[in-house]
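Structure ticket #2291
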Amino acid sequence: MEWKGRSCVIDEKRRPQNGDTVLLDMSGMYEWAMIMIHPRRLITDDGAFLMDDLLEDIAVVGVVTHEITELYDRDDWNPI
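Resolution: structure written out below.
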């Protein structure tokens, strides 16, 4: 899955654990976040904390298992 400049492999069947990075579906808008189980909250890539009532309209799409990093510059195809 590629979203907001990050390419990640997502496991849609894995249950999130404390500290996992997840892909969220927030009423049709997607966002990367780190999940905290106790206390229940999400921290987005932008640094926003989502807690309590804000979590009701959010669905976890999947847990990030691997992040893919480019080893070349797309414009020049030169190694970085």
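Closing remark: The mean pLDDT is 83.
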